[in-house]
Amino acid sequence: MSMNNKNIFLYITLSIIGIFTLAYFIVANNISHAFAYDASEIKYANEIAYLEASAKLYAKQKPDIFKEKETVYIKVSDLVESGVINADDDNGNVKDPSSDVKLLNDLKIRLTNKNGKITAKVLEN
User: Fold this and answer.
1) Along the 125 residues of the chain, how does pLDDT read in single tens digits?
2) In angstroms, rounded to a whole number, what is the distance separating the alpha carbons of residues 30 and 81?
3) What is the domain range of residue 24?
4) Is the same domain home to 14 and 52?
5) 49 and 94 part of one domain
6) Are 109 and 51 in contact (CB under 8 A)?
């Protein structure tokens, strides 16, 4: 079977279309990873903001924690034990929204009371 002059243009055109299609899919696949949306970072930031707001509430409920110092440190587990926040499971664990295995229970929170103004800051590693 030989190619005649009439079909050469068709074969070349189909070959070029095939090569460009393959190149498009390779490039599009590589570029799409650069624009991947990862909501776990936003969920983690929201969880940290929630913990800080909850820690302020905890400090307002227990004003005598500032009797000796204007800065005290608590853990997330203290917020769970006092009932300020709810745990994610029956064991009292607060899960990290950006990971399936990490827990936030051991995160320290710095509470400061300066002139009656309470601030809270989660201290991340």
Assistant:
1) 455 677 888 889 999 999 999 999 998 888 877 676 777 888 889 999 999 999 999 999 888 888 889 999 999 999 999 989 998 888 888 888 888 788 888 899 999 999 889 999 999 86
2) 47
3) 1-36
4) no
5) yes
6) yes
Q: Is the pTM of this model over 0.85?
A: no
87 & 116 share domain: yes
Q: Reduce the secondary structure of the chain to three states and give it as a string.
A: CCCCHHHHHHHHHHHHHHHHHHHHHHHHHHHHCCCCCCCHHHHHHHHHHHHHHHHHHHHHHCHHHHCCCCEEEEEHHHHHHCCCCCCCCCCCCCECCCCCCCECCCCEEEEEEECCEEEEEEECC
Q: Residue 115 corresponds to which amino acid? A: N
Q: What is the identity of the amino acid at 69?
A: K
